[in-house]
Specification:
2 domains; seven-stranded parallel sheet; Rossmann fold; alpha/beta; five-stranded parallel sheet
Length: 313
């Protein structure tokens, strides 16, 4: 398969990059100073695109690659892939579900604990020698808090199962009520937020879920409520969230994702009730290797005329 051209959109995994280089004819899109000229020169050779949550295959890229057969995503989210255009052109699309579920759900619980128990601030307190001057202030208990989850897919369900171990009542919002769970269902996000102490965003990013957490939802969650986002940055109206945190209308936030990554609103930097992470939900050695292996497996299956491992389109 070393004659098959594969376009990797951006750096995402050294292991994946090396394996793609070993198995295919790898083109590194981010390393091209004149990307349009590069595409024009190599369009006839590129039969696959490898993207992720930040760089995928939009309509313009797809149109410039007439030989494109498959887009294999190093992510679960597909918001950077024009799925409609792929369907129109018969281009296969795959992603990496399941293998990152545990890590992202683990991180959601970690963010909840970090925000409620002020773990990051406690660490700073010890490091700067303040403990010698007195004990750290009291924080907030997690066990027993009402946890509301937006999106009860693989990751949302995994978060719920972990939160149950803390004796937390679980409720959720999704497009429809799930038949395989006894968790409380609410038909609107505002209603869910009104009945939650902690609101976790775990749904897919679509036009319908963009800014699904708006001012009305934030106000419903209230000045003691905690907002956790391990989905995508645009799920939350970031300007409204920042205002609510600064003004004390929202109790705290744990954020792994942001609207315009890697840009993060500087107003959040001085808030001790906010924990900020650089989009590391799936960022463990074990999971990133498993994700890379799925990308490779899907490409090899496609070019060997075998069934795809994780087909989306």
């Amino acid at each position: 398969m070393d004659a098959i051209g594969v376009l990797m959109m951006c750096p995402m995994s050294n292991y994946l990059e090396q394996e793609l280089d070993n198995r295919f004819k790898l083109f590194r899109y981010w390393a091209q100073p004149k990307q349009r000229d590069f595409l024009a020169d190599h369009a006839a050779s590129i039969r696959a695109v490898v993207g992720n949550a930040t760089a995928g295959a939009d309509a313009e890229l797809i149109a410039s690659l007439p030989k494109l057969e498959i887009v294999s995503c190093f992510s679960v989210g597909l918001d950077k892939v024009d799925l409609i255009k792929c369907k129109e052109k018969g281009i296969r699309v795959t992603n990496t579900p399941d293998v990152l579920t545990d890590d992202v759900a683990d991180l959601a619980i970690g963010l909840i604990l970090a925000v409620l128990r002020r773990i990051c601030e406690c660490d700073k307190y010890v490091r700067r020698g303040a403990w010698k001057l007195g004990d750290f202030k009291l924080t907030t208990k997690f066990s027993g808090k009402r946890v509301g989850i937006i999106g009860l897919g693989r990751i949302g369900l995994a978060v719920a199962e972990r939160a149950e171990a803390f004796d937390c009542p679980i409720s959720y919002y999704s497009r429809s009520k799930k038949g395989n769970t006894n968790y409380t269902y609410y038909g609107s996000v505002v209603e869910l937020a009104s009945n939650s102490d902690i609101l976790v965003v775990a749904c897919a990013l679509t036009p319908e879920t963009t800014h699904i957490v708006n001012r009305q939802v934030i106000d419903a969650l209230g000045p003691k409520g905690i907002l956790i986002n391990i989905g995508r940055g645009p799920h939350i109206d970031e300007a409204e969230m920042v205002s609510a945190l600064v003004e004390g209308r929202l109790g705290g936030a744990g954020l792994d994702v942001f609207e315009k990554e890697p840009e993060v609103p500087e107003q959040l930097f001085g808030l001790e009730n906010v924990v900020l992470l650089p989009h590391v939900g799936s960022g463990t050695e074990e999971t990133r290797k498993a994700m890379a292996d799925l990308v490779l497996g899907n490409l090899e299956a496609h070019f060997s005329s075998k069934p795809l491992l994780t087909p989306v389109v």
